[in-house]
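User: Reviewer 2 asked us to show a designed sequence for the structure in our supplementary figure. I'm pasting the structure tokens here. Could you produce the per-position amino acids so we can include them in the response letter?
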């Protein structure tokens, strides 16, 4: 038997990073259990690594991290390496930048990980170590050998997602409002998003699989509210109808509420009617901008302000709360463009919204732009890519060619004040009220931490 410690590398002082458990590691654990049973013992954590390491004494460590937390992942890998424990590094960052594999990381797992980690676990069970002559035969890996980075052939995507066991949720904390995935990938190619590069193409769990997973969450975890965390939940309309029918047949419609992410061009009266039948009470959309020029720069010609506005109106007419994300700071975006976004938010009276500053993450189109401008590099301080501009505005990468840092911070704070007012006004009748106690407590902890660590973004 081997003991595997899976680590979700997050900033534990950030409310948004602590809001949900890491289902990605849950899928890995579920697949490993399915293949090896009692031959593998798994623990999943997102904090207290050193303490857990001493008590649990793992034979193998797996780390998952996004770019902004990659520096922390490197520190964890160093601790494990010094104790002679092999480290498997996975996630979107290492997939986009294999050459960033740290010397303390034994192997980088590139792309979809369920089958890759099974092959690595089988190899470790059989031989108790990882040698280059064995690793070279496993797809989807990167590793250092004789000071050279070796890349094995890419692993093809899992075509039938239903073969993947349900995530091992007993290893992670599940609250009354939790989330799940019903698909992988996105049909769009937004400038700032790496989803299409990571997942390659949209793939779907079947309606029966989705309904079964919802039933398990209700029965085994007493869940009251589920957010579908897909990039675009409604991209397959026939499947959407089958999910609604399956929930009705299983008698689950009155037992659970849902929220989901949608794309404005796909919102129609017919689609919204299906969502209402499913008891979807909240929809999130990446509306991104109130300026057509900026919007189409970020998302492409299929998107327009008129369609965004129409989609919001259709959802609100059907009493579905509308949450939206917006991005400011594109290279050619002016202050007036940003104020168009500000006015759009006020005019449409969104339930909630989030505001972000355009950040060049590895694997995205905008990363290539930032590379050409020499604003980023493959050995940079990854903490500078922190999505929380509120605490990172003095270190963040600024892509705007129309505004300096101070001007962008000023406009960003104006949006944040509007966001606060919007949230305080609408939370009392919004479906997310269920999260208010937990989120409020974590925000208080985050603010206290920031007060005592002013100037330090670690």
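Assistant: Here is a per-position design you can include in the supplement:
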């Amino acid at each position: 038997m081997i003991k595997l410690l899976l680590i979700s590398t997050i900033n534990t002082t950030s409310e948004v990073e602590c809001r949900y458990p890491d289902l990605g590691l849950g899928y890995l654990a579920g697949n490993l259990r399915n293949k090896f049973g009692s031959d593998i013992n798994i623990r999943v954590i997102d904090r207290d690594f050193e303490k857990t390491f001493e008590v649990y004494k793992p034979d193998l460590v797996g780390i998952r991290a996004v770019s902004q937390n990659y520096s922390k992942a490197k520190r964890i890998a160093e601790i494990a390496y010094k104790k002679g424990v092999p480290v498997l590094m996975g996630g979107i960052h290492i997939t986009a930048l294999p050459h960033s594999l740290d010397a303390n990381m034994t192997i980088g797992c590139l792309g979809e990980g369920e089958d890759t980690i099974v092959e690595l676990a089988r190899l470790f069970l059989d031989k108790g170590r990882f040698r280059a002559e064995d690793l070279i035969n496993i797809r989807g890996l990167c590793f250092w050998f004789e000071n050279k980075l070796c890349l094995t052939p890419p692993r093809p995507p899992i075509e039938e997602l239903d073969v993947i066991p349900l995530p091992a949720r007993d290893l992670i904390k599940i609250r009354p409002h939790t989330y799940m995935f019903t698909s992988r990938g996105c049909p769009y190619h937004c400038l700032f998003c790496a989803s299409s590069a990571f997942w390659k193409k949209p793939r779907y769990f079947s309606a029966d699989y989705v309904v079964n997973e919802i039933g398990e969450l209700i029965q085994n975890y007493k869940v009251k509210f589920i957010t579908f965390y897909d990039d675009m939940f409604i991209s397959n309309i026939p499947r959407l109808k089958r999910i609604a029918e399956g929930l009705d047949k299983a008698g689950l419609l009155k037992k659970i509420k849902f929220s989901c992410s949608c794309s404005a061009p796909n919102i129609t009266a017919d689609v919204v009617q299906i969502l209402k039948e499913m008891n979807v009470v909240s929809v999130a959309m990446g509306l991104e901008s109130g300026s057509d020029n900026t919007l189409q720069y970020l998302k492409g010609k299929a998107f327009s302000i008129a369609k965004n506005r129409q989609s919001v109106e259709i959802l609100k007419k059907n009493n579905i709360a509308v949450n939206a994300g917006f991005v400011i700071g594109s290279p050619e975006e002016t202050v007036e463009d940003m104020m168009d976004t500000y006015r759009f938010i006020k005019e449409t009276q969104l339930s909630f919204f989030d505001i972000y500053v355009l950040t060049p993450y590895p694997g995205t189109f905008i990363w290539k732009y930032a590379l050409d401008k020499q604003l980023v590099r493959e050995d940079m301080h990854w903490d500078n890519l922190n999505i929380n501009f509120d605490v990172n505005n003095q270190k963040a990468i600024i892509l705007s060619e129309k505004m300096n840092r101070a001007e962008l911070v000023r406009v960003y704070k104006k949006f944040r004040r509007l966001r606060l007012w919007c949230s305080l006004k609408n939370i009392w009748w919004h479906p997310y009220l269920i999260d208010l106690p937990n989120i409020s407590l974590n925000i208080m902890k985050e603010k206290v931490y920031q007060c005592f660590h002013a100037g330090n973004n670690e």
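For the response letter, you might also mention the following. The two ends are 37 Å apart (CA to CA). The mean pLDDT is 94.
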